[in-house]
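Please, structure for the following, as C-alpha cells.
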Amino acid sequence: MMPPWVSIMPAPVTLHSSEYNQFLEHLRATRKASGLTQEQVAQRLGKPQSYVSKTMNGERRMDLIEILAFCDAIEKPAVDFVAEFVAELVADVERGKSGP
C-alpha cells in the first residue's frame, strides 16, 4: 500500500510545486521555532547567510544531505523534522487540499 502523501506528489516535483512550497514553510517554521536566526544557522553550517536565505525563500533547492545538515544545525532530529512534514502533507490530503 502506498503512503497517503504519495497520491499528492506529482512526478517530478518542481522547485515551485505546492508541496515544495509547503516544505519551505515547514523549514522556515522549524528554524524560527529553534530560536536561531538565519545568520546563526549559517554560522553553524559554515555557509554565508545568503545561502540560508536563498534556501529558505526557494531560490535554491535543498538535497537530502543539506536537510540533514540543517537539522543538525538547529538541533532538531531529522527523523522528527521529516515526520512532522509528512504529517502536514497527510493532513492536507485528508482535508482535500492535495495537488497543485
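The domain at 16-94 is CATH 1.10.260.40 (434 Repressor (Amino-terminal Domain)). The chain has five helices and no strands.
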